[in-house]
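1st attempt posting a full record on here, be nice pls
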Amino acid sequence: MVTLYSLSSSSSTFLFPPLSLKHLHNYVPKRSTTSLYFNDNNRPLSATSLQSPESDPSVSPEVRTFWKWLRDEGVVSAKTPARPAVVPEGLGLVATRDIARNHVVLEVPRRLWINPDAVAASEIGKVCSGLKPWIAVALFLLREKAMEDSKWRLYFDVLPESTNSTVFWSEEELSELQGTQLLSTTLGVKEYVENEFRKVEEEVILPNKRLFPSPITMDDFFWAFGILRSRAFSRLRNQNLVLIPGVDLINHSSKVTTEDHAHEVKGPAGLFSWDYLFSLRSPLSVKAGEQVFIQYDINKSNAEFALDYGFIDSLADRDAYTLTLGISESDPFFDDKLDIAETNGWGETAYFDIFLDRPLPPGMLTYLRLVALGGTDAFLLESIFRNSAWGHLELPVSRANEELICRVVRDACKSALSAYSTTIEEDEKFKGEELDPRLEIAVGIRQGEKKVLQHIDGIFKERELELDLLEYYQERRLKELGLCGEQGEIIFWEPK
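the predicted structure (as tokens):
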């Protein structure tokens, strides 16, 4: 777990810990890629990309058979405007004709979805009813994968054995992430998944060998976790976790700036049936022969992309660093500070994701000032200020408080930068080289984190230079009472 330190005059240190695992227990994966690494080229492919996949020799037999299964299920036809093809990312969906913006690319009926409802309706539904949704679906995936007569047999045949997600990296590969937050997060996620497996093995798998006749290993469980983490959708109405065969072939592009691609509609699901459909629509206009892309998640950082999907985005503003602040229980004003924080929607710990070349997150400076509050400034913690303290902290409190914040943040940046095994300049030398996909991710992550740390340091360095120009609480209060002039001079009233 992350160790947090309070920032105060008596204990003026804190850490930048790893990416937070605070949401992992209720984890809902977003969207996936079949990519081994990211390539943003959207150039038209060869004429073979316009063929039916069943007759395209560049596509594997498994993919051709899988697409035929979708055709037999009534999901695709000669009118379907896209088909699977080999692309720079590995495998993707390519337009067979011009596709207009917001036009339907694929629609898959609910009977083919893999989600908690499918688990509940299966033989293992009863024993999985009390599990976390992702664990229940993971067990369902592994059980169905082992069954030769599974409805999704041909879908499982096209799923990758692993991705370039950092949870699948070797120790040697992970060593390239030395000093990064992503390394600590990856190790934390792996420990979490291992613990969840041991627990579900003891409580569900072993006591129900009739339902799970094929052995399920730790590696199997990690495979299922990786598939869900990289390929699941979560934006449909009433759907928090769902795999959609065929749709999950689509790749990500930073050129797409909207996440409006997934829709749940009711429509024909066969010759004589209607059902809810997952409707995938193209967020951009696409020419025949070009790859169809979506935006996986606008708000994710490159570290999250590497962890979830096994690639990083080409946009620099994906580079981020997570600052975690906490009010230490040893702080003499712990109870008062915690009360003020909770009253204003914060807590004992606060997480701030700082992105390259973007302003500091809302509330960060205010929370910093609260954590750093001490000495003569502690009067703001008195009960008389309880309802207004946060408002006062939104502006500089005192020079000492602001100076302390700047100094400690800058020291923390320098300390974090010293933990990397390479410098930004050394990482720059890899630019333009043909790198192993995982090394390319590692170089991009550590370079991005360092740039963000320099960005943070620059913000607070500039703030240090402005300390004498800032207006503090005492000056603001004197102005309110009419005892301070516009230039900050104190006005003395002489008795008549």
